[in-house]
Amino acid sequence: MSKIPRHIGIIVDGNRRWAKERRLPAFLGHKKGLERVKEAIKWVGKKGIKILTLFVFSTENWKRSKREVNYLMKLAYSTINDNLKELHKKGVKVRVIGQKERLPDFLQKSIERAETLTKDNKKMILNFALSYGGRAEIIEAMKNIIKKKISPERINEETIKKNLWTSDVDLIIRTGKEQRISNFLIWQAAYSELYFSPKYWPDFTEKDLDETLADFARRQRRFGK
Questions:
Q1: pTM attached to this predicted model
Q2: Which of 6, 134, 149, 218 could cross-link with 186 by S-S, CB 3.0 to 4.6 Å?
Protein backbone atom coordinates (compact mmCIF):
# COMPACT_ATOMS: atom_id res chain seq x y z
CA MET A 1 0.00 0.00 0.00
CA SER A 2 1.49 3.29 -1.11
CA LYS A 3 -0.54 5.47 1.26
CA ILE A 4 -0.73 4.79 4.97
CA PRO A 5 -2.81 7.13 7.15
CA ARG A 6 -0.87 8.98 9.80
CA HIS A 7 -3.76 8.95 12.27
CA ILE A 8 -6.66 6.51 12.39
CA GLY A 9 -9.58 6.49 14.76
CA ILE A 10 -11.63 3.39 15.49
CA ILE A 11 -15.16 3.50 16.90
CA VAL A 12 -15.21 0.22 18.80
CA ASP A 13 -18.86 -0.80 18.42
CA GLY A 14 -20.98 -3.93 18.55
CA ASN A 15 -19.74 -5.79 21.63
CA ARG A 16 -23.18 -6.08 23.23
CA ARG A 17 -24.96 -7.04 20.01
CA TRP A 18 -22.23 -9.62 19.30
CA ALA A 19 -23.00 -11.21 22.68
CA LYS A 20 -26.78 -10.95 22.29
CA GLU A 21 -26.77 -12.77 18.95
CA ARG A 22 -24.89 -15.61 20.65
CA ARG A 23 -27.21 -15.56 23.67
CA LEU A 24 -24.32 -14.56 25.90
CA PRO A 25 -24.19 -11.93 28.67
CA ALA A 26 -23.18 -8.44 27.49
CA PHE A 27 -20.15 -8.64 29.80
CA LEU A 28 -18.69 -11.44 27.70
CA GLY A 29 -19.09 -9.26 24.63
CA HIS A 30 -17.11 -6.49 26.31
CA LYS A 31 -14.45 -8.97 27.40
CA LYS A 32 -14.11 -10.30 23.85
CA GLY A 33 -13.96 -6.71 22.60
CA LEU A 34 -11.10 -5.99 25.00
CA GLU A 35 -9.12 -8.92 23.58
CA ARG A 36 -9.64 -7.46 20.11
CA VAL A 37 -8.45 -4.02 21.30
CA LYS A 38 -5.17 -5.53 22.49
CA GLU A 39 -4.69 -7.25 19.13
CA ALA A 40 -5.64 -4.14 17.13
CA ILE A 41 -2.97 -2.07 18.87
CA LYS A 42 -0.37 -4.58 17.69
CA TRP A 43 -1.76 -4.66 14.13
CA VAL A 44 -1.69 -0.89 13.83
CA GLY A 45 1.83 -0.70 15.21
CA LYS A 46 3.05 -3.06 12.47
CA LYS A 47 1.54 -0.90 9.71
CA GLY A 48 3.60 2.18 10.50
CA ILE A 49 0.61 4.26 11.60
CA LYS A 50 1.73 7.02 13.96
CA ILE A 51 -1.46 7.74 15.94
CA LEU A 52 -4.29 5.38 16.91
CA THR A 53 -7.34 6.71 18.72
CA LEU A 54 -9.75 4.10 20.09
CA PHE A 55 -13.26 5.27 21.02
CA VAL A 56 -14.02 2.91 23.88
CA PHE A 57 -16.42 4.80 26.19
CA SER A 58 -18.45 7.88 25.32
CA THR A 59 -19.93 10.60 27.51
CA GLU A 60 -23.32 9.09 26.60
CA ASN A 61 -22.26 5.66 27.88
CA TRP A 62 -22.54 6.94 31.46
CA LYS A 63 -26.31 6.45 31.01
CA ARG A 64 -25.90 2.67 31.00
CA SER A 65 -26.57 0.57 34.10
CA LYS A 66 -24.25 1.13 37.04
CA ARG A 67 -23.22 -2.53 36.95
CA GLU A 68 -22.19 -2.36 33.29
CA VAL A 69 -20.37 0.97 33.73
CA ASN A 70 -18.42 -0.39 36.70
CA TYR A 71 -17.43 -3.44 34.68
CA LEU A 72 -16.26 -1.26 31.78
CA MET A 73 -14.19 0.91 34.13
CA LYS A 74 -12.46 -2.22 35.45
CA LEU A 75 -11.82 -3.41 31.90
CA ALA A 76 -10.27 -0.05 31.03
CA TYR A 77 -8.06 -0.31 34.12
CA SER A 78 -6.86 -3.80 33.21
CA THR A 79 -6.28 -2.80 29.57
CA ILE A 80 -3.95 0.00 30.60
CA ASN A 81 -2.21 -1.79 33.47
CA ASP A 82 -1.74 -5.21 31.90
CA ASN A 83 -0.23 -3.82 28.70
CA LEU A 84 1.71 -0.83 29.99
CA LYS A 85 5.15 -2.45 30.24
CA GLU A 86 4.94 -3.90 26.74
CA LEU A 87 3.66 -0.64 25.24
CA HIS A 88 6.40 1.34 26.94
CA LYS A 89 9.04 -1.13 25.74
CA LYS A 90 7.78 -0.67 22.17
CA GLY A 91 7.99 3.11 22.40
CA VAL A 92 4.25 3.78 22.50
CA LYS A 93 3.03 6.99 24.12
CA VAL A 94 -0.21 6.27 26.00
CA ARG A 95 -2.79 9.02 26.43
CA VAL A 96 -6.39 9.14 27.60
CA ILE A 97 -8.58 11.84 26.07
CA GLY A 98 -11.94 12.76 27.53
CA GLN A 99 -13.49 13.94 30.76
CA LYS A 100 -11.01 12.14 32.98
CA GLU A 101 -12.35 13.85 36.09
CA ARG A 102 -15.53 11.73 35.77
CA LEU A 103 -13.59 8.46 35.94
CA PRO A 104 -13.18 6.53 39.23
CA ASP A 105 -10.08 7.38 41.29
CA PHE A 106 -8.38 4.01 40.74
CA LEU A 107 -8.62 4.49 36.97
CA GLN A 108 -7.44 8.12 37.11
CA LYS A 109 -4.34 7.04 39.05
CA SER A 110 -3.64 4.26 36.55
CA ILE A 111 -3.95 6.74 33.67
CA GLU A 112 -1.60 9.18 35.37
CA ARG A 113 1.03 6.46 35.81
CA ALA A 114 0.75 5.36 32.19
CA GLU A 115 0.90 8.89 30.78
CA THR A 116 3.86 9.83 32.97
CA LEU A 117 5.84 6.68 32.16
CA THR A 118 5.33 6.91 28.38
CA LYS A 119 5.28 10.69 27.84
CA ASP A 120 8.61 10.79 25.99
CA ASN A 121 7.97 7.78 23.72
CA LYS A 122 8.07 8.54 19.98
CA LYS A 123 7.19 5.33 18.07
CA MET A 124 3.42 5.71 18.19
CA ILE A 125 0.73 7.62 20.08
CA LEU A 126 -2.10 5.51 21.47
CA ASN A 127 -5.15 7.53 22.52
CA PHE A 128 -7.93 5.92 24.52
CA ALA A 129 -11.06 8.06 24.09
CA LEU A 130 -12.59 7.36 27.49
CA SER A 131 -15.52 9.35 28.84
CA TYR A 132 -15.11 11.17 25.55
CA GLY A 133 -17.42 13.34 23.46
CA GLY A 134 -16.49 15.51 20.51
CA ARG A 135 -18.76 18.36 21.59
CA ALA A 136 -17.34 18.22 25.12
CA GLU A 137 -13.85 18.44 23.63
CA ILE A 138 -14.71 21.58 21.67
CA ILE A 139 -16.30 23.16 24.75
CA GLU A 140 -13.10 22.50 26.73
CA ALA A 141 -11.05 24.02 23.92
CA MET A 142 -13.18 27.18 24.07
CA LYS A 143 -12.73 27.37 27.84
CA ASN A 144 -8.95 27.03 27.47
CA ILE A 145 -8.86 29.82 24.90
CA ILE A 146 -10.85 32.09 27.23
CA LYS A 147 -8.54 31.25 30.15
CA LYS A 148 -5.53 32.19 28.03
CA LYS A 149 -7.21 35.54 27.32
CA ILE A 150 -6.70 35.22 23.59
CA SER A 151 -8.43 38.12 21.85
CA PRO A 152 -11.22 37.26 19.35
CA GLU A 153 -9.33 38.62 16.33
CA ARG A 154 -6.46 36.20 17.05
CA ILE A 155 -8.69 33.12 17.18
CA ASN A 156 -8.52 30.97 14.06
CA GLU A 157 -8.54 27.26 13.17
CA GLU A 158 -4.97 26.83 14.33
CA THR A 159 -5.84 28.31 17.74
CA ILE A 160 -8.63 25.80 18.20
CA LYS A 161 -6.51 22.87 16.98
CA LYS A 162 -3.86 23.67 19.57
CA ASN A 163 -6.45 23.43 22.35
CA LEU A 164 -8.04 20.15 21.30
CA TRP A 165 -7.13 16.81 22.87
CA THR A 166 -5.72 15.27 19.68
CA SER A 167 -4.86 16.05 16.05
CA ASP A 168 -6.73 15.74 12.74
CA VAL A 169 -7.65 12.17 11.85
CA ASP A 170 -7.11 10.73 8.36
CA LEU A 171 -9.30 7.64 8.58
CA ILE A 172 -12.20 6.72 10.86
CA ILE A 173 -13.26 3.08 11.04
CA ARG A 174 -16.55 2.13 12.65
CA THR A 175 -17.54 -1.46 13.32
CA GLY A 176 -20.94 -2.71 14.39
CA LYS A 177 -22.99 -2.03 11.22
CA GLU A 178 -23.88 1.56 12.14
CA GLN A 179 -23.01 4.38 9.73
CA ARG A 180 -22.43 7.53 11.78
CA ILE A 181 -19.54 8.99 13.76
CA SER A 182 -21.50 9.45 17.01
CA ASN A 183 -19.79 12.55 18.42
CA PHE A 184 -16.28 11.16 17.77
CA LEU A 185 -13.50 13.63 16.86
CA ILE A 186 -16.05 15.88 15.17
CA TRP A 187 -13.60 18.76 14.65
CA GLN A 188 -10.70 16.52 13.62
CA ALA A 189 -12.90 14.50 11.24
CA ALA A 190 -13.70 17.43 8.94
CA TYR A 191 -11.74 15.81 6.07
CA SER A 192 -11.49 12.25 7.34
CA GLU A 193 -12.11 9.25 5.14
CA LEU A 194 -14.86 7.09 6.64
CA TYR A 195 -15.07 3.31 6.56
CA PHE A 196 -18.02 1.40 8.00
CA SER A 197 -17.46 -2.27 8.66
CA PRO A 198 -20.45 -4.66 8.67
CA LYS A 199 -18.73 -6.70 11.37
CA TYR A 200 -19.15 -6.34 15.11
CA TRP A 201 -15.95 -5.30 16.85
CA PRO A 202 -15.17 -8.76 18.38
CA ASP A 203 -15.21 -10.22 14.84
CA PHE A 204 -12.95 -7.56 13.28
CA THR A 205 -9.64 -9.10 12.15
CA GLU A 206 -6.25 -7.98 10.93
CA LYS A 207 -7.37 -8.95 7.42
CA ASP A 208 -10.30 -6.54 7.78
CA LEU A 209 -7.88 -3.80 8.81
CA ASP A 210 -5.69 -4.55 5.79
CA GLU A 211 -8.71 -4.32 3.48
CA THR A 212 -9.68 -1.01 5.07
CA LEU A 213 -6.20 0.42 4.60
CA ALA A 214 -6.14 -0.80 0.99
CA ASP A 215 -9.46 0.97 0.40
CA PHE A 216 -8.02 4.14 1.96
CA ALA A 217 -4.96 3.95 -0.31
CA ARG A 218 -7.21 3.86 -3.39
CA ARG A 219 -9.09 7.02 -2.45
CA GLN A 220 -8.13 10.49 -3.68
CA ARG A 221 -8.14 13.07 -0.90
CA ARG A 222 -8.65 16.46 -2.51
CA PHE A 223 -9.44 18.56 0.60
CA GLY A 224 -11.81 20.70 -1.46
CA LYS A 225 -9.27 21.43 -4.20
A1: 0.95
A2: 134
